[in-house]
Amino acid sequence: MTTISVSEALAGAARLLGAAGLDQEKASAVARRLVEADLLGHRSHGLQNLPTYLERLADGRIALTGNIATLHDTGASFSWHTERLPGAWVMEQLIAQAVARASQHAVVTATLANCSHIGALQAYLEDIGRQKFLALMMVTDPGVASVAPPGGVDAVTTSNPMAACIPTDGDPILIDQSTTLVSNGAIAQYAAKGSLLPGQWVVDNQGRPSNDPAVLTATPAGTLMPLGGPEFGYKGFGFGLIVEAFALALSGFGRDQPRLRGAQGVFLQILNPAHFGNGQAAFMAATTALVAQCRGSRVAADAGTIRLPGERALQLKKDQLARGIAFAPTVLETLETWGARLGVPTLFAPPPS
User: Fold this and answer.
1) Chain centroid to CA 308
2) Domain residues for 95?
3) Burial class, 283, CB count within 10 angstroms (exposed 0-12 / middle 13-18 / buried 19+)
């Protein structure tokens, strides 16, 4: 592994994105969210994913310029549409607008259609939680189909992640999970290594549970296993349908339209606890007490410790901010190759001697 500082990672990624044609503001926003994903441990959505973005910038699947169109705006709700503008850049503006409005409205709901890939959902949540807002986010790509309905073998939906942040008097609880046992990206990593999956995380093209990642690239293709597994996967598929309705249909970007992989629909809702129940202080006391009660649970044999959603990610971020981010050499080598191709030959500090 090669360790580079966070500032080096941010600067290197932004230089590559700038060389690929993005202006400084957009390049910096995308770099921030990629590096944030690495800081939180979402490696498949960090700098490892940057070459995919560079490919899409080169072939036009990510637009260099364009406008954000406002489809609806009622004050407490607004709906945006873009023509494949960089997802991270648009998301930062969407969240800033929603947070600003949440100081005046109890609930602010926003949708976004046809932005490019936004990356790891968790990478957007911490700042919202630290401002003492409760938030819910759902995102998916109508151009990807990798999950079959209960009783079916042909894919209709995909891994359809949903996320939430719950503020407390300590660190916020950060929930980010797909509605399948694992994501498409996670399966691809096992396939690239030629390894079997640790469990029956996929379903072959005959509807049989499997631990072979190759079933997703078979002809016809297999599908991802929904949360709940073979017995209760209908529950995970149900959660996936919620994401379809909120992130796609509600944003005006549903699966009834032509499928163009690489563009996403987003649902974001921010709630201000000050306008509910007994006010913000009471809400924060309740969520903080809930954390304490979780930590007060007897620890199961062989478990070692109690862990809440986002806790390990935030600790990893803290550690990496101090000592740098460790990357597999192949990740940085690939980025250096892209740098040479784009005329940015030196991106990151060399490994220590």
Assistant:
1) 18
2) 2-180+226-279+311-342
3) buried
Same domain (yes/no): 116, 151: yes
Whole-angstrom distance, CA of residue 275 vs CA of residue 103 = 10
The answer to whether 47 touches 329, Cβ cutoff 8 Å, is no
Token pair 């023509």: residue: 83
Amino acid at residue number 107: V
pLDDT in tens, the chain (353 residues): 899 999 999 999 999 999 999 999 999 999 999 999 999 999 989 999 999 999 999 999 999 999 999 999 999 999 999 999 999 999 999 999 999 999 999 999 999 999 999 999 999 999 999 999 999 999 999 999 999 999 999 999 999 999 999 999 999 999 999 999 998 888 988 998 899 999 999 999 999 999 999 999 999 999 999 999 999 999 999 999 999 999 999 999 999 987 778 999 999 999 999 999 999 999 999 999 999 999 999 999 888 899 999 999 999 999 999 999 999 999 999 999 999 999 998 787 555 55
What is the C-alpha to C-alpha distance for residues 107 and 351, in angstroms, rounded to an integer? 48
Give the C-alpha distances (Å, rounded to integers) separating 86 from 60, 67, 222, 342.
11, 11, 30, 19
Burial class (CB in 10 A: 0-12, 13-18, 19+), 254: middle
Q: Which of 218, 183, 221, 223 is nearest to 202 (CA)?
A: 223
* Token output for 1: 């592994």
In this structure, the answer to whether residues 275 and 194 fall within a common structural domain is: no
Q: Is 300 within a domain? A: no
Alpha-carbon span 92 to 36, nearest angstrom? 13
For CA atoms 101, 102, 107, 112, the dihedral sign is positive
State the sign of the Cα–Cα–Cα–Cα dihedral 15, 16, 20, 25. negative
Number of structural domains in the chain: 2
On whether both 213 and 108 belong to a single domain, the answer is no
The residue type of 311 is: E
Q: Are both 120 and 60 inside the same structural domain?
A: yes
> CATH number for the domain including 28?
3.30.1370.60
